[in-house]
Amino acid sequence: MTTTWDPTAPGVLRLPSGRLVRGRALRRPLPPGAQPTFALYLLGRQPTPVAWEHRWLRWPDFRLPSDRTATAHALREAWARAVDERVEIACGGGKGRTGTALACLAVLDGVPNDQAVAYVRQHYAAGAVETPWQRRFVTRFR
């Protein structure tokens, strides 16, 4: 039994290492198929309860995370767990905050900071990482 995502499923990003992470918009219905085993929800307020393990990061729409240290720790945890778990990263629209977080995971996976936004736009969504400060956050992420 596999515990990672189907690489052809909507919203699934393959990182250079082969790790699979799903990005999605919480304003849309949960996609059919497998559920996450772990998720990071990037929202200005606490999300509705879900049946799987998750973390909430206070991250208002079009902004940056409220606690950058906690965000870095949570992203490292998500990246590590994506080796053998179905990790989901999601915000309201699934583009700006989700794209920013996915670009940070790409950095953790070895993509140079200055290329991570382009990587996510090519392999996840063309409109990912919406604001200049989100792009700057990725270029400075460690």
Automatic annotation (TrEMBL):
InterPro entries: Prot-tyrosine_phosphatase-like, PTP-SAK. The keyword NAD does not apply. GO terms for molecular function: phosphatase activity. Gene3D superfamilies: Protein tyrosine phosphatase superfamily. Residues 75-117 form the Swiss Army Knife protein DSP-PTPase phosphatase domain. Keywords: Hydrolase. This is Swiss Army Knife protein DSP-PTPase phosphatase domain-containing protein. It comes from Micromonospora echinaurantiaca.
